[in-house]
Amino acid sequence: MRTKTLRRPVDPGQFTSEEWLSPLKAAGVAISMDGKGRWIDNVFIERLWRSVKYEEIYLRGYANGHEAQRSLLKYFVFYNTRRLHETHDYTTPDEVYFSGLAKTTSVAA
Fold first, then answer.
1. Which of 24, 51, 90, 96 could disulfide-pair with 29, CB 3.0 to 4.6 Å?
2. Element (H, E) at 72
C-alpha cells in the first residue's frame, strides 16, 4: 500500500526568495518586507476576511462561482459604502478614504 505525502501548497519562504524578488525589483516594484508593517497588514486582512466569512459567505449557499462572485461584489460595495466600522469612529471606509483624499488633493493644489 502506498502512502501519500501531504505537501504545503506554498512554501513559506517562496515569496521572500531572491528568485521571486529579483524580477519584481527589476520592474521597480516597491516591496514591503521590512519586518515592521508585515504583521499589521496581516491583522487587517484577517479581520476583513473574518467579516466577509461571517457576514456574507456563511449566511449564503451559493449555487456556483458566478453567484458567489456577484454576491461578494454586492457585499464589498456594502462593506465600503454603508457598513459602519468601529475602528473608523463609526464611519465607512469610503468616508475615511475620500476625506483623506480631499485633504491630499487640496494640499497639492
1. 24
2. helix 65-81
